[in-house]
Design a protein that fits this description.
mainly alpha, 169 residues
Amino acid sequence: MKKRRDMPSRSDISENVDQKNSEMDDKEIDLDKIATDVETVRQTLESLDLGGTSECADELETAFDDTESVTIEEFEKEDENLEQIQEETHEYEGEVGDHRDSSESDLGKISDASAQIDTKETTNELIKAKEAAIRDIEFLADQIDRAREAREKSDEAQQELQRRIQSDN
């Protein structure tokens, strides 16, 4: 029997997908807070009377412009971090897909072997192997779907947050 390569367990795969989903959710929350800060800074500047001296008005406008710039820089940094997590998730989807492809290949080989077996007892035992491969394929497909759906949801949220900070620029 061949030695198993360093194959991840189902729990490892599920935990990795959960972790990436959680990381994307956390970054979305961070980006939402920063986008809200940008909106607050913009709204506050717009609401100012600037009825004091011209020097004060200039200083306030400069301070608010600088505040907005710093906040947008922070948003862009966190946005890049989210994109990195999304890319890692996408790559992991591919890795899990490779495992699913391998399981599908194994299922085909088991099916081919079953067709060549004459004894009922042996065929019955191979059915158990087929069922195990099918369960694995279904599990891996589910994990790929979970990761893809979370990544797509994250991407949509990211785009909406980007629109929020760009709306007044």
